[in-house]
Amino acid sequence: MSDRGRVRRVTLRDIADKVGVTPSAVSMALAGNHRIGVETRKAVQAAAAELGYVPSSAARALRNQHAGTIALIVPTTATHVFGHSYFMHVLEGTSSVANEHDVQLLVSTNPDNEHGLAAYERVMRSHSADGAILTSAAIDDPTVERLIDSGLPVVMIGSFPYLPSAVAVGVDDRSASRTITEHLITEHGRTRLLHISGTLDHQTGVDRRDGFLDAVRAHGIEADAVIVEGDLSEESGSAAIAALGARIDGIDGLVAANDDMAFGALTTLRAASVSVPGDIAIAGFDDFGLARVTTPSLTTIRVPAEQMARLATARLFQLMEGEDGGWQRHVVDVQLVLRQSCGCLPLDSTASEAGVLPV
């Protein structure tokens, strides 16, 4: 049958958008869960009837299950997850709240980079979890919407402006990136800036790049700015510097989308006898531990990943209990941490940081 002749199935999200609640609240309302208020249940039932919603057997199974487990879904490989500080902070925050509620935590990853559905399918098809935390999903990942529409309570960590019905906690990456870029411009007089971005198929990479662009445009120095896409690894930071070749001589400031790439760039620059921060001032992003132990120490944005994970997990338990009135999108504050790599702290200083400023 052609697409023109196929009738689109009404989803929980369609009902949720009409009533103004989350898909998981719709799922519980249709199941007659008394934790959902009477008026909300009536509104959901009326919208479902009006839209012609037909529940699937899989959705019914999800509503009726009690696995005593929540899932942390990370649609990437286990090697990447357990080798990156961000995920360890998320795991610590998520597991601490799960332990407080005496439930198990299931970590679902992909076996390799070619099987992007595995992390989701393992949770959705097995009915092995009562709710899920999702982090590091790509912008064009269609399975995210399937997960939300399944009726399983879901809280996302990160920014997902293309999913207005999602419950999500994150930071304002764009504003923070602009702040740290403007610090190099206004406090250190750097005007020829390089940005090593994260992968641009993820909203974090896009937002941190756009914050950099906001800063250089506001100060009229966009024409001399350079952007190189990295993949958040130390190696890609090194590769970005190597790829510029002699063009690096025209750069006097560098803003990397995370500390790993900043460190890779720093190592390569020092090997080429480029002075940091003398010739090039450097700033990173995240402050998960590496920035404190590099030489020179890295100026960076401190992202409270463990706090975000705790907030996300606590909110998930609210959704699983059908509690109304919680936040839909929550933005957590970050801090600008000033150290040696931008010139705020002398290279011979024994202090760990020159200052910590709210963003």
UniProtKB/TrEMBL annotation:
The lineage of its organism: Bacteria, Bacillati, Actinomycetota, Actinomycetes, Micrococcales. The keyword Transcription applies. This is LacI family DNA-binding transcriptional regulator. CDD domains: HTH_LacI, PBP1_LacI_sugar_binding-like. Pfam families: LacI (PF00356), Peripla_BP_3 (PF13377). Residues 10-64 form the HTH lacI-type domain. One of its GO terms (molecular function) is DNA-binding transcription factor activity. InterPro entries: HTH_LacI, LacI/GalR-like_sensor, Lambda_DNA-bd_dom_sf, Peripla_BP_I. It comes from the Bacteria. Keywords: DNA-binding, Transcription, Transcription regulation. SMART domains: HTH_LACI.
